[in-house]
Amino acid sequence: MPVERKPFSGFTPSDFSAYLPEKRRDSLYNEERLEIKHKLHSLGEMAAEPLTTAGLDLDFKTSLSHPYTYNKYSVDSQWVYFARKERARRALKAVLGMEIGEDLGMHYSHVILLIEINLEGLELGLKIHQQAWWDGQNIRNRCQNTGDRKAFTAELNRLGGFVLNIHDWRREYVCGRLLEGDVQNFFNYYTPGNHWLHLKLKLKKDTVVPMGREFGLFAGQAMGQLAPVYRFIEWRPDNDHVFRNK
């Protein structure tokens, strides 16, 4: 029977407490997390429209709401995330080859856009999966070019409030005041295939809860603002800075 989801109405304080350490591994809280999963799905539906308007054609999915192998049997956060559709994955598989292309079966093993809820609040942003070296290498190579590096710096500086960082490293590159040299330095250290790339906006739960349904509109707008950065990064046949000279 299809799940009847309600329109997104906002997050409550109890939604965030679902990720308390004592609840993360306990299946007794699966139903509680499933309700949050439904909220995230409805939020994804709201965010899909501005992304389409911004020129992106992506699928969205929600992450697991119960402890399982893929989350190491601990649910410390949940996501709704946007990634390549099957057609775009086929184009990438064609250049990666069948064996390496199998990695694309995991929907989140790409550059993705996401909204994540955890104990402290919400994060909106873009990530390049640690295994998605093709997307990471694409933007790293592209930013070796002075003109593209300047353009990418300008795109990041339009995202006031977002921060860029590598993997779990402490250093943050604050969007809105980045210099071209900061971006060059970032890519001197970022290693595709070894590191996650994070571009995120953090919001405390005390900020999110009073917004109610309006948070959905805010999140959709923020996702739309990330679209030019996503397009700059994503490997595509018309944005190939990895394989074109091979």
Folded structure, characterized:
The protein is globular. It has nine helices and seven strands. A hairpin with a 6-residue loop joins strand 5 (163-166) and strand 6 (173-174). The chain has a single domain (13-233), classed as 2-Layer Sandwich (BirA Bifunctional Protein, domain 2). It has a seven-stranded antiparallel β-sheet. It is 41% helix and 17% strand. The protein has helices at 13-17, 30-53, 86-96, 98-101, 133-142, 146-157, 180-189, 205-208, 214-233, and strands spanning 58-62, 77-84, 111-118, 121-128, 163-166, 173-174, 197-204. The chain starts with 12 loop residues before the first helix and ends in a 13-residue tail after the last helix. The protein has 246 residues and is of the alpha+beta class.
Gyration radius, to the nearest Å? 18 Å
CATH superfamily: Protein of unknown function DUF1054
Query: Which ranges are low-confidence, i.e. pLDDT below 50, for 5 or more consecutive residues?
Result: none
Task: Determine the N-to-C terminus distance.
Answer: 50 Å
Strand ordering within the main sheet: 1-2-3-4-7-5-6
Please state the structural category.
alpha+beta
The SSE order reads HHEEHHEEHHEEHEHH
CATH C-level class is Alpha Beta
* CATH domain fold name: BirA Bifunctional Protein, domain 2
Instruction: Describe the global form.
Output: globular
Can you give the helix content as a percent range? 40-55%
Instruction: Kindly estimate the percentage of residues that lie in beta strands according to DSSP.
Output: 15-25%
Strand tally: 7
